[in-house]
Design brief:
- With 192 residues, this protein is mainly α.
- Helices cover 65% and strands 2% of the residues.
- The chain has a two-stranded antiparallel sheet with strand order 1-2.
- It starts with a helix and ends with a helix.
Length: 192
């Protein structure tokens, strides 16, 4: 083997290593984007953002004061924020990469997406049941007024069949439309 052959092999290995790293970075970027989207979808109903438990069966509409900061890094400067983001990405990647081979395959990604969707559905159901005082599977105008002012403000728009009550399907459909319209408006304002 000649010196030029050895250099060529090293160059090919280097190119392959760079390509693998680029794919890894692209995967982490996709995970970050999807994790961000998952986090945003968890707050699809403003009541999801409430951290306190229901009081007398009513989900509070004003947030409580945040707990005092825990001991540890404060993530106040850019280096700390980058470190926090790195930890978050690593934990997210490790949670998705269930076989721990350092890669996320289609099955792992599909399982992660299913688990996130199931968690969002369970959260929605929990809040819906807390607001549904009479247990009929619908939210009346009075139940909505007591539990969630945002839904009350848009009650007539959400109640597409005009039966005077909101079904889970009507609420989900409203928020799909709402966030779709917002994303289109955001995209229109951010185009160069």
């Amino acid at each position: 083997m000649t010196t030029s052959d050895t250099k060529r092999q090293r160059s090919l290995r280097t190119i392959e290593t760079l390509r693998t790293r680029r794919i890894g970075r692209a995967t982490l970027a996709a995970i970050t984007l999807c994790a961000g989207a998952a986090a945003l979808s968890l707050v699809a109903l403003p009541s999801y953002a409430q951290s306190a438990a229901p009081i007398n069966g009513v989900v509070p509409t004003t947030p409580t004061a945040p707990p005092p900061p825990a001991a540890g890094p404060d993530f106040g400067d850019a280096a700390d924020q980058n470190a926090a983001l790195g930890l978050y990405l690593q934990r997210s990647f490790d949670a998705i990469d269930t076989n721990h081979d350092g890669k996320i395959d289609r099955n792992e990604w599909a399982a992660y997406q299913r688990s996130q969707l199931e968690a969002r559905r369970a959260t929605f159901e929990r809040y819906f049941k807390a607001a549904d005082k009479d247990g009929d599977g619908y939210l009346s105008r009075d139940e909505v007024a007591a539990a969630e002012p945002f839904l009350y403000q848009h009650f007539d728009e959400i109640d597409v069949n005009h039966d005077g009550k909101l079904s889970p399907a009507e609420i989900r459909a409203y928020f799909r439309r709402y966030y779709h319209e917002r994303s289109q408006a955001d995209a229109a304002t951010t185009k160069p």
